[in-house]
Amino acid sequence: MRQRRRDLTEPVTVIGVAVAALVAVVVVLQSVGAAGVATAQRPVTTTAVPPPPPTTTVVAPPTSTKATVPADIQLATAVYDLRENAFVSRSDEDQPFAAESLTKLLIATDLAAAGKLTGDNLPRVQRMLSTSDDTAANQLWTADGGPQIVSRAVRSMGLKRTIPPRDPGRWGDTSTTAADVVRIYQHIVTTMPAAQRDVLLADLATTARAADGTNQDFGITAALPDGEWWAKQAWACCRPAWDVHTTGLVGADRRYVVVALSQQPVAGGFGGATRVMTTVAKNLVAGLQIQHQVVGGA
Asked: Global pTM?
């Protein structure tokens, strides 16, 4: 199994989330993709497709996330148990956020539904999901119908509050909620044909450096070991703040969907925002019955 590449110059440590609000103001120019797409600022990627395996650990009950973040941070969370078909916890799960790179999940699932996970699309989807490559996303978004991708996803997955972007070229401006992101992962795991699902999950099992050099190892990927998450991160600035999201399946058996969406002050910077999301993710997974990957043997 390929292991994640950690950036030794940027260790992932859990720092008190309040520190994020005190970090010096950093003026960040929003990057714009070739198609005028709002893109992200800097996260991580590596491959790890784990064998389904054995031990189950029960830990403390879930910790409230609302009390752990400063008041100037907008946060929505949802944890869904796919085995029990029920939410474990949720908070402001219907609050809308700019989807940013979470729109890439809709592009990938739409291509799969149309039987287009073939040819040149395959490496583009891999780059789009694993390294959050915006150039690949721009190409696939334009070729597959732009905002119609979102409209088709709303119908096929029963999304309740996901809305296409007003500017057809800005896929990152798609609006979604934590509850709808849960529905997207639920669709991938329970509805997609196994072959298509496995292609997407292989791409979601990688993290280290994004295509633009961003360290995207935060939130869910920093809260659990390799082989126990399949994640899509998202980030962008500054319209008018940092949008930083961490989402995915957790547990070696992919039992849970974990979603945390946030909008955070520019003053905290990307580093401050990702530290907040790592703390939030650790709180969200703390009470789950996580099945751990068994590495090696006797």
From this structure: 0.80
Q: What is the spatial distance between Cα 76 and Cα 7, in angstroms, rounded to a whole number?
A: 28
pLDDT at 38 over 90: no
DSSP 133-175: -HHHHHHHHHHTTTHHHHHHHHHHHT-SS-B--SSTT-GGG-E
Q: Is the pLDDT of residue 143 over 90?
A: yes
Question: Measuring CA to CA, how many Å separate 93 from each of 47, 114, 177, 180?
Answer: 29, 29, 6, 8
Q: Which pLDDT belongs to residue 29?
A: 36
Q: What is the Cα–Cα distance from 131 to 43, expressed in whole angstroms?
A: 8
Alpha-carbon gap, residue 274 to 121, rounded angstroms: 30
Which domains are delineated in the chain?
Answer: 17-291 (3.40.710.10)
Strand, coil or helix: 241:
coil
Give the list of residues 6+ apart from residue 15 with CB closer than 8 angstroms, or none. Answer: 275
Per-residue pLDDT of 253-262, as tens digits, reads 999 999 999 9
